[in-house]
Structures are given as structure tokens and as C-alpha cells.
């Protein structure tokens, strides 16, 4: 812009210099040509100080004046800020008065300086008619020279400040036509009469009448031309004077051609263009209404907002009561939406898009999808106008919430399910690793919950689980997570452990609240307890799978210690768990590999010394020929459901042995067999 500013100032001041240089040169030459002054007189006047000093002074004053006058224009071109535009327009509007005021003042003084210098330095004696004649020549010549320069300056202003919108014309086409088509011929005609008058010394009534008729004809012709041009310009004037009302969604402006010349053809094509734009706007309006999409526009510079009918219908407000863009946004959504909007206004994102809740007239807050884009910026990149759309997405949001709930929430308690808990645990581990913090995972299992389902039914069991979930949730912090993995199993995620005893305090509160009676209906008052296992990150493990496994092992340790308590994970639990897992695996294969055998403990009649009975005792020799006693594997077999198969094998084997011994030794011999309580269920 600095190059443009310098070029403009250089060109503008060049025109000003021409305005004050050409008229003296042409005027003085004309005075010599019509014999108003002789050449020696003119040379004498120009070589004496009076006339040159006057010309230099007038030139200097005009240069200084218009250099200062153009300073606002140059400042705007160097830094095109909106605040300077009113000053630029005001200077352009007042330029004609300043230009011609300074110029005509110079024209009144220049001939007087010429005559006074001629009388002082030569033998020239001025008559009254000479004063009139010299001033008239200077005026005519100067105006003839000044008008083209004046028009060129306005052309320069129009070209230079094309980015500024003028509400009405400053220098009209009619004015241009009148100056060139009427005033210039009149001045030239007057100059010819002046020449004839000077040469012949005669200017009678008949000469005056002929001159006047020619002048009137010239004026009449110019006015007729201007009037005809006015008719051609009517469509343009209608377009310029048409009010631009942003409250109308579709413009109904019509330009009617009023001539058959180029302007008429232009008006006809412009009218067709406006009609096509009208149809395009109708199509856009229909498309927006059919898709229930509202249109809005924000004039950032003026603060004016425009809303389409569909936009108003979506919010349910009348046009006068429609809230401004920033009003009506839910407080929880405003900060995020405003940040997205500001990023776009500062050109950090190509468009503005946001899902937010806006307040409607009757339905309260509803979800909307709002998008927009800046369509106009100034030369410095400052946003001026933003246009966008609005769609109601409440139904979609409800569907998404339902899907999210079904995917990440437990149907019964509405707590996070296993998937959500695992996701939060993974994220918690990453956060703890990044910030160097710690977290705890707690596994909770309700004691003897199966008895509730078996005695009172599953509906009562579900009610108990719902109430249990509420009680546990009341004991934790806002940053903690309570989840239900399934059945009567719950888990806790306790991040940000900045206090040493915070875990114990939370778990103690849970134990206390679960001890309180559960009154689920008028006939049932239940008491339950829970066993809880605790593991820590990063002390016990550094991944989610290991933490969950450790918490589960610690929970079983709490059950084995009497239940209704919590227990922290230790490394020995992993060793025991591994041994238990190996034992379980080998136990499942023991029957297939015939690793069980029966030992018989005899019962002897001490009086006779006769064996009257025997007790069958099972023993297990594993793959490593290690003898495993029943106290080690029978409880495990009961727990994993193998006790029935093992008991059947014991029974069949003992019966076969009894049959053989009865046939060989004593028909009255008996064998007793031990059975697990699980075999009677």
C-alpha cells in the first residue's frame, strides 16, 4: 500500500502543479496574440520582480495547501483503516469547493498583478475596458485549462479509492457532460468573440445579439443532451437510491430499462441478472426450509444481525425478540463454541462449526449444529461479515446418547460398564504416568448375594444391586469412577491419590454404608456385606490387565479372611494364584489320566480281630509323582464343579472293590464313602 500512496500523492500534486502553471503560460501567450500587450511589454513585465514573485507565491501557497489537503488520503492508503473512510469521503466531497475557490482567487489576482506591473515598468496605460478584457481572457483561458485537469483529478480519486463505498455520487456523469459539452463550447465561443472585439475594436448590438443567440443555442443543446442522458441514467439512479434492507430474505429490486442505448442494454441485462438472483434466492430459501435449516448473518462491524424465517421458527421467537448470536447459548457450551468462533475469526481455522445447546421459546434448551464462515474482511484481514446456518440435532443427540448409554453403561444400575471402566483405567494410567501420580483399583464383591436371588428372586436382587450402586457412588469423589462389571461385582477407579489415607477412608465409608439395612419393600429388610481387594499403580503393576487381576486376587484374600473387609494386594498372592491355577488345570486332567486311587482304612473288631468294615480314602498322584492330599484338592474340586465327577468315580471304584472282597473274604463286609455336600444339591 505504501507504493500506491506515493504514486497517488505524486500524481495528485502533479495535477495541482499543472493547474497553476498552464493557465499563466497559455494566458500570457493569448494576451500577446490578441495584441492586448506587445511582446516587449510582456518580456519587461516577466523580467521585473512583481509578476514573477506573485506567480511563485501563488504556486507555493497552492502546493502547500493541497499537499496538506491530501494528507488524509495518503494516510488511508498507507494504513487503510475503516475509521479513516469518513474523512476520506468528506475530503473528496469538499474538494471541488477548495479547488475552484483557490483557483478562482488566483484568477482574480493574476490579471491585476499583470496590469499593475505593465503600468509600473512599461509605457502601458490601462483603460477601464482593458481591466475587463484582461480579466475576461484570464478567466476564460484558466477555466478551459482547469476543467480537464479537475476531471482528471476526480478520475484519479475514483480509481484510487475504489474500495470505499459512496452512498451517493460525488462527481456525477451529468456534471461531466455539462462541463465538457456545454461550458467548454461557451467559453471557446466567448474567446472568439473576445478575439474579434480586440482585433476590430467593434462590438455593437448586432454582434452582441448574434453572440447571445449562439450562446443560448449552445446552452439549449447541452440541456437537451443532459435531459436525454438523464433518462438513460434513470435505471442507475434507481439502483443507487434503492434501500438495502437486510431484514428482507429475498430482494425484490427491479431495474426497468429507459432507453435503447448502451445504458438501456446494460439496464436490461442487469434486470435479468436481478431476476435470476431472485429465483436463486427462492430456490435457496426453499432448500433451507425443506431441510429445516436456518440462515443467519452477523455484520461484525455494525453489530447488525439477520435471521431467516426458518431460523426464527427453529428457536420459536418473533423477529423482534430473536436473541443476538451470543445470547441464548447454554452456559456449559458457550466457552467452547466461542473459542471455535474466535479461532475462525482470527483465520486459525477455515470455518466455524459447533454443536451447542440454544434456548428456544417454548421447549427450553435444545441441541443445534451451527456452522459459519467469514465472507468479507478488510485490507488488514479484520473480519467484517459472517454468514452461517443452524440445524436442530436434538433427535440425533438423543439417539447418540442412547447408543452411548447402551455401549458404555450398565443397563440395570446405569453405572459405567466393563468397557467404559477399562477405557477410563487406560486413560488414568496414561495421566498418572505423564504427571508422575498414583491410582488405585478396587474390586468389590457382595458377600452371599446368591442367597438373595435364591430366596427372594431376581427382581429383589436387582433392586438390591441398584441401591448398592447408589450407596457406593455416594462414598467416592467426583473424580472417581464406580463401575459394575456384572452380577454382584463392582469396581472402583481412584485417581489422583495425593493423600496417603484417602483409599482407606473411602473403603471404610463403603463398608459402613453397606452395613446399613436395605429396606427394599415393606416385607423385606436385608443386610449384606462386601469383600474388597485393592491394588495400586505403579507399585503393584503398570498395566490395566494386571491391576484388575491383582484387585481380584486381593478380593479373594479378603473373603478367605472372613469377608466384610478389604485387603491390599501383595506379591505372595500372585504366587498362590499361579499355584491355584496350575492345580486347577491338572485337576481337570486327573480323571482322564487315571491319577486318582483309593486307599482303604480298615475297621477291626478288637474282640475277634476280624475286619468288619473299611473307609475309602481318595489320593491323587500328579504328573510329577507328587502325592496330593484331599485337603488340598477337594475344596478346589467343589469350587470348580468337579466334585460330582470325582465322587462318582470314588463310588464306582469302591463298589467294585467291595464286590471282590465280599466274594473272597466276608459277605458281610462294608465300605464307607465320604461325600461332599455339593453332591446332595
Name a few traits of the molecule.
alpha+beta; rod-shaped; 16 strands; five-stranded antiparallel β-sheet; five-stranded mixed β-sheet; 681 residues; 20 helices
Explain this structure:
The protein has 681 residues and is an alpha+beta fold. It is 58% helix and 16% strand. The strands form four sheets. The chain has a five-stranded antiparallel β-sheet with strand order 2-1-5-4-3, sandwiched between helices. A five-stranded mixed β-sheet has the order 7-8-6-11-12, sandwiched between helices. Helix 1 packs antiparallel against helix 3. About 1% of the residues have low confidence.
Q: What helical percentage do the residues reach?
A: 55-70%
Strand order of the largest sheet: 2-1-5-4-3
Helix count, per DSSP? Answer: 20
Rg of Cα set: 53 Å
Distance N terminus to C terminus? 97 Å
Low-confidence parts: 245-250
Mean pLDDT: 81
Quick one: biggest sheet? 5 strands, antiparallel
Structural class: alpha+beta
Can you count the beta strands?
Answer: 16
Strand residue content: 15-25%
Shape: rod-shaped
